[in-house]
Structures are given as structure tokens and as C-alpha cells.
Amino acid sequence: MSQSLPLGAGYNMPSKEERPRDSFLNRRSIIAVGIGNGLEFYDFAIFAALTPVISQLFFPSGDPLSAVLSTFAVFAVGFLMRPVGAVFFGRLADVRGRKVAMIVAVTVMGASTVFLGVIPVYAQIGIWAPIFLVIARMFQGLSVGGEFGTSATFLIEFAPSNRRGLYGAFAFFSATAGSVLGIFLVFVLNLFMSPDSIDSWGWRIPFLLSFPLLVLGFYLRQRVAESPEFQEAKTEEAHLKSPVLTVFKEHWRGILIAIGIVLGFATASSTVQVFLPSYIRTVIGLSPRVALASVLIATTVAIFMVLGFGHLADRYGTRPILVLASVLTVALPYPSLMVIGLGELGPAVLGQIILWIPVAAFGGAAPAAWAKMFPTRVRVSGFGIAYGFGTAIFAGSAPFIATWLIELTGNDMAPAWYMVVGGALTLVVILTFVKGNGHIGRGSSGRAI
């Protein structure tokens, strides 16, 4: 018989009486984290939005769908580096501090994104072009593998005990805002440049514009204060020299359950953010401008839904919101793709917003739940490893599998199946292994999520 994990055992965050509310220090920390998170996902958004262009420039083929498959395979390589980044940055954050890890992560991401903007294409250097593309994606994956777990943990450790859901949701909110910025820039390119100009040199502009974001993120993160919980743990000599080994040895069940939650979140978010922009263009047949406009509108709506679900997690608990997210991941993909398949701007926007609802619910509730599964001394390692491995397996493969399912079956609705399976499995994990009254910050035991 399975046993439910009392999530948050050893979760020693101070009570809300001990933690300052919305101080200038907290606001500055939120902005610093937001800039870095935004940069991390800004790149993923522009890579996804420019997939039809990149696929032809780096993987020239007579079959557009095959070229897209090759590009999504490169995209998956970045995800496969996330567990490596989670291990590296997890140890760095749990031993040296959250601040140091965030500075290194934003620097690596910014440099590799700028590098993407200067890589010669296949017609110029042949096979070296996709090789350099893969290398850049590997370093980006390494960085993202450490960024999200570190930054979300940092925010939650700064949060008042009755607002951990909202603070954790800001990690995904800022990431999605970065996506909106990336999509907007690609939309502007398509609005004011000809397709030939974009294919020739215009596609490089969004990657090169990440440089000022890198400088700003680096500057702000250098000036931010360290997490108060990490400082307390370090003072008490509660930190470990090998937090990664410790988390695997003492908290392996928490890692597995967290990965089970990542499963539904990753399949849904990767399908919406990475697969759909290309799907709407290459499968549904909307023009690049209309397709990008639909993605931009839907994603802008989504960023506010994330904060809304973070607030609901504080009010009703993370467990009920995670259950809701899982159920909606099962129920909404097929009708959403049917609406998108109508082939016009309005239905495309509506269909994407529908699919964004479970993604926003996961993004609003899951960070606080994941952080609560691990004590301070191994929190970033545990959070990051679960998120890194989960996204590497399920998010990295989602665009490729979704495209492959269409090619295999000839059915444009086939990608819905992947999301349905992911949501169903996550629902089973939550109902079977996650217990508690679902409230964040109620009492001192840290038992409930």
C-alpha cells in the first residue's frame, strides 16, 4: 500500500510574524529575480517563435515538417542539460548561497543567447552550423536547469508565510513575461520586415537584444541581499558540503513525487509555449503575423492568470489547485485544438487561452509546493533536481512527440493525447502521494501543501 508523503517535513520557514512584509528589500529581490527569470524564458520563446525560420536555415530540407522535427530535437538537447544544471547550481546555491548561483546562471544564459545570434547558418559553414546551435542550446539548458529552482526558492524564502504561493508564482509569472517580450519582438520583426529580410539577418535581432537584459540582470543580482533562511542555516552550521548526495539519500521520495507533479506541468507548458507557435503556422496554416499575434495575446492574458492562481494557492492551499490543474490538463487539450483548428485569429487566441489555464494553475501553485518538500539545507538541490529531470524528460520531448504524432497518424488533434496522459498521471500522483489540508503556512509543522 502506498503511503502519502508528509510534504514539507523539515520545512523550517519562519512564521509571518518573523518575516517582513513587502519591504523595499523584498521588492528589490523580486525585481532582480524577475529580470533573470525573464531572460531565461525570453530565449525559449524567441527560439520557439522562430522555429520555422531556424529550421530552414540550420537544417535545410525539402520537407518543412522534417526540418521542424530536427529543430525540436535540438530544442530537446537544451532540456537534457537541465538535470546537469540542477545538480551544479543546486550544490552552488545550497553551499555558497542562492545569490551566487543566480548571478552565475543569468551570466551563462545571457552569453549563450547572444552567441546564438551570431552563429553562421548552414549555407555559410555547413555542418558546423547545427553543431554550434547544439552547443549554445546545451549551455542554455545548463543555465535554466539551475535558474528556476534557485530563483523560486529564493523568492519563497523571502515571502511572508501567508503569501508563499504568490511569491512562488512570481517565478513563473516573470518567466512567462519574458516569453511575452520575446514573442512581441518576433511579432514586430514580422510586422516591419519582409520574410526574406528575416530569413537573411532579422532573425538574429531578438537573440542579440538579450545582451542589455544580461547586463541589467547581472547588476541587479549583485546588489540583492542573500536569502534570510540560507543565512540562518549557514549561521547554525546546518548547511552541507554535499547537499546533492544528501537529497538523493534522505529525500528521494520527495524528488520522485515532485517529478510526478512536474510531469503534468511540463507536458502542458512545453506544448503551449513551444509547440503551438509552430503548429499554428505550419499545420493550421495561419500567416506568421497572425500566428504570432495570437500567441502574443494569449500569453499576455496568461501571465496574469499565473498570479491569480498563486493567490488562490495561498487562500485554498496548493494541493487543491494542483488537482484542478491536473484535471484541466486532461479535459481541455482536445477541445482547445479543435477551436484553434478553425483557422482564424479569434479562435486561435481563445484556444491557446484555454490551454493556458492548467499551465497557469500549475505555475501558480507548484513552486511553493516543491519548495516545501525539502528543508533549507538541500532545498535548491531537491527542487532543482526534480524540476530539471522532470522537464528534461517530459517538456523537452513534448514538441518533438507532438509533431511526430501528427506525422505518424495524420491527425492534427494527436498532440492532445500527450497532454492528456501527462495530466492523468500527475493527478494520480497527487491523489495518491500528496496529503494534508492543502493550506500554505498554516501552523508550524509544514506538513500540508
From TrEMBL:
Please give the name of this protein: Putative proline/betaine transporter
This chain's source organism reads: Rhodococcus rhodochrous
Question: Keywords for this entry?
Answer: Cell membrane, Membrane, Symport, Transmembrane, Transmembrane helix, Transport
Its subcellular locations are: Cell membrane
User: Which Pfam family name is an example for this entry?
Assistant: Sugar_tr
- Indicate whether Membrane appears among the record's keywords: yes
**What are the record's GO terms for cellular component?**
plasma membrane
Membrane topology term:
Multi-pass membrane protein
Q: Into which family does the record put it?
A: Belongs to the major facilitator superfamily. Metabolite:H+ Symporter (MHS) family (TC 2.A.1.6) family.
